């Protein structure tokens, strides 16, 4: 029997909050910025888990403004994404 070992270095904490974000997509030499929304379901020092209707994929880069510190920008990399019905659940790593 295989024993599951946690791979995360930081503990996840439940956190419910809406998030307006921008997905930065590169196609050839063009940079596209697509606005979308989602809901944070948990967070840690190194990232967060997000639910959204936008089809996030590993490798996508997201950015959003900090609600508490004007002018501070957050940037995260989508590490994994899973489709569940009409929604996508994704794990983001702060970069």
Q: Fraction of residues in helices? A: under 10%
Task: Please state roughly what percent of the residues sit in beta strands, choosing from under 5%, 5-15%, 15-25%, 25-35%, 35-45% or over 45%.
Answer: over 45%
CATH architecture assignment name:
Beta Barrel
Average residue pLDDT: 89
Biggest pleated-sheet summary = 6 strands, antiparallel, barrel
Q: Tally the beta strands.
A: 6
Explain how this protein is built.
The protein is built from no helices and 6 strands. It is mainly β and 95 residues long. It has a single domain (14-94), classed as Beta Barrel (Thrombin, subunit H). A 6-stranded antiparallel barrel has the order 1-2-3-6-5-4.
How is the secondary structure organized here?
Layout: E1 13-27, E2 30-43, E3 47-52, E4 61-65, E5 73-84, E6 87-94
Antiparallel strand pairs: 1-2, 1-4, 2-3, 3-6, 4-5, 5-6
Question: Any key phrases for this structure?
Answer:
globular, Thrombin, subunit H, six-stranded antiparallel barrel, mainly beta, 95 residues
In a nutshell, what does this entry contain?
Helix content is 0%, strand content 63%. It has strands spanning 13-27, 30-43, 47-52, 61-65, 73-84, 87-94. The chain has a 6-stranded antiparallel barrel with strand order 1-2-3-6-5-4.
């Amino acid at each position: 029997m295989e024993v599951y070992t946690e791979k995360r270095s930081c503990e996840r904490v439940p956190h419910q909050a809406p998030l307006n974000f921008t997905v930065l997509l590169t196609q050839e030499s063009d940079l596209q910025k697509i606005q979308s929304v989602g809901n944070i379901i948990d967070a840690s020092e190194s990232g967060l888990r997000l639910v959204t209707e936008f089809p996030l994929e590993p490798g996508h880069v997201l950015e959003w403004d900090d609600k508490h510190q004007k002018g501070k920008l957050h940037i995260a990399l989508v590490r994994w994404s899973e489709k569940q019905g009409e929604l996508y659940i994704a794990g983001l790593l702060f970069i």
